[in-house]
Each structure stands twice: as structure tokens, then as C-alpha cells.
């Protein structure tokens, strides 16, 4: 078991470089098995979710070579085997193998996905899309059995009842080799959708409309290998921007696509955080207090990202007055609030609304990272707090943040990760 130990209250400065997007990489990797020759992905983040996906590939006899940034995926000797448990249950993105295996083999057995618990996260829209293409889907003892008819999948018009990144990507993977045309309406518009569509098109697919709410996919017979660079991680970038506003004196966050962060930047500027925006970097200088309170409402892209409401919360605690957060995507994304209260935050949850009152001084205590972005929130809070903060549940943080200890240390943070032996009582 690992713990992160932070001696807080120290101002940070310097430059941090953002890695490739986790939420792209975890879909790009399953998509790569659709090729009939090797795929090279550049800028892949060195995170636990990526390593878990590589292990799944290796189980299916897919050859991989990962140096911490470039991942080569060779599916030429791949075999289709049931994957009902193990690594499949350790991350939610495992469900992208459903669409990929359905396309590649006409069948697949995939365990129900895991990942962070953020409330109900049904996959009904994924299954609706598969069935519209002609597949049969059955849930047997916790595993999804996917099968196509003898004539294969056929293009169809599919309307997603809710805007879902996962369903949009999964149906896209299933449709790229279906006969005829598939149209996905009410599709998600996130940058990660565009990134995966770009990879597929480089492999020979015909996907149009990525980034809009209507996707048109013309089925092709074959897909080939290619080289692709993962887009920068907008959530990692937003986390370090929030950190810079909370405890930085002069921090530059580089390798960013600024338009992917417009919602967060607008809220930070509304608070009074001085920012200098360049072509691929954002510089944050120390703000003159007091900071103004804000109201945040998470929405599908291009709205404020649900993944950024937790990392932004410690910075909001520096504002004077009452702020609110309403997460319309994951209403149960509130487990960071009790931990912040233990650190001295004036915060509470009323129904679906998070209420925050600042300013307040945080003190170091032992807290638990219940999920990935809650972990990021607690790291920032620990850096702000007086005294020592110890964070457990570190495995959740390592799922999505590449070399976080090294990056924080380079900014001047007093932070380390320690190994702790499990104690059996």
C-alpha cells in the first residue's frame, strides 16, 4: 500500500509539462487492435490505467512495447478469449473492448467495467448502439456476451438518449467496419472523441463529424496500422492550473490546447486569478486577495468538465463568500467534501449541490483519495494546508496522473510517496 505525504504551506513556482490525455489513451489502445498491422501511439501517459490495458492486450497475445511515452501495439497474432474478470474490473475504460472485439471477431466476452465509483454509470446506451447495428448482447454471470449475426454488423441510425463519451466511442468502434453507413445522433463532442476518430481515419476508417453532435461512419473492410500522437490531457492541465492558482507564485503549464480549457480558465479569471495565455501554454501568477466566489455547473463539452470540479474545489476555498458546485454529470461526485471538512474546510453537500464558504485555512490530517479526481483535490489541499497531510488510496491517483510526485517536486513541493505494509488485525 502506498501513501503520499505532503508538508504543506510552501509556495510553488516553475514549469510543468502536460502528458497525453488519459481519457484518449484508454480508448486509443483498444481501438488499435482493429488494425491488421502495428500501431504506434506517441505521447501515451505513463499511468496505471495504461499498464492495465497493456496487460489485457498481452493476455490476448497482442505484442506491445512501451517506453513510458511511445506505445507500439502489434495485433497481428491476437486471439479472442473471454475477459470476464481481473484487469477488466480495475478500470472503466475496459468497456471499449466490447466495441473493438465485436468489430474484429464478430463476438466477444467482456467483464463488466470497474473504475471509480461516481454513482450510477450505466452502459445501456453502449448496448443500445450495438443492438442497433445487429448484435445480440447478453449478461451472463457478470460478463457481457456480444455476438453478431452471420452476415455481420450493418450500419444504422442511432440516437443516444444521453450525451455519453463512452457510448459514442464504443459505438464508433463497433461501426467502423459495419456494412453501410452508421449515423450517431446526440453524440458527445469532447476532444477525446476527435482524437479517437483521427486515429481511426489514419487507420483507413471513414469517420466524419467528430466534434459535433452527429457522427457519420462509412464502413470499411480493412484497417491498417499507423502512427498517432495523443492530444494533451486537458484534465491534468486543469489540475495543475487549479494548483497554480491555489498555492503558486508563478507557474507555467505547457503542452496544452487552450480551447479545451476555456470553461476552467473563465472561472479562474472570474475569481481574480491573473493568467497569461499563449499558443500552447498558460502562465498563472499569484493573485491579489481577496478572490471572488463563483458558481460552477458541470456540463458535457464544451461546458465545464465534471473531472475538473474536484481539483478546483481547494482553490474555491480561498474565495471570500459562498460558492456552489452543481455536477450534472455525476451527482455523487462529492466524496472529497467530507475529507476537506476534516482538514478544516467550510463545505457541505445539500442534495445535488456542493456549498463552499471561504476563506478558510486548511490543516494537515490523514485523508483518503476515494477516486481519481478526489485524489487530485486532496493533493492540492495538502499543498495548501499547514502541517503534514497523509493521503491514502494513492492507487486511485496513479490511475490518471503521470509522475505526479516528480512534477510536484520540480515545482518546489515537499512531497513524497512511501510504501506502507498492510496490517492484518
Structural class: alpha+beta
Cα(first) to Cα(last) distance is 16 Å
Helix content: 25-40%
Please tell me how large the radius of gyration is: 22 Å
The strand line-up of the biggest sheet is 21-22-1-23
- Could you name the ranges where pLDDT drops below 50 across 5 or more consecutive residues? 114-120
Mean pLDDT across every amino acid position: 93
Largest sheet: 4 strands, mixed
Q: How much of the sequence is in beta strands?
A: 25-35%
Shape: elongated
Task: Provide a count of the helices.
Answer: 13
Kindly state the number of beta strands.
23
Characterization of the model:
The chain is of the alpha+beta class. 30% of the residues lie in helices and 26% in strands. It has helices at 22-32, 48-59, 96-105, 124-132, 165-175, 191-202, 234-247, 262-271, 309-316, 336-342, 372-384, 394-398, 404-410, and strands at 2-7, 12-17, 39-42, 63-66, 71-74, 107-111, 136-140, 143-147, 157-159, 181-185, 206-208, 214-218, 227-229, 248-254, 275-277, 281-285, 295-298, 321-327, 346-350, 353-358, 366-368, 388-392, 414-419. The strands form six sheets. A four-stranded mixed beta sheet has the order 21-22-1-23, with helices on one face. Strands 2-14-16-15 form a four-stranded mixed beta sheet. The protein is elongated, with a radius of gyration of 22 Å. It starts with a strand and ends in a 6-residue tail after the last strand. The model is unreliable at 114-120 (pLDDT under 50).
Sum this structure up briefly.
It is built from 13 helices and 23 strands. The protein has 425 residues and is an alpha+beta fold.
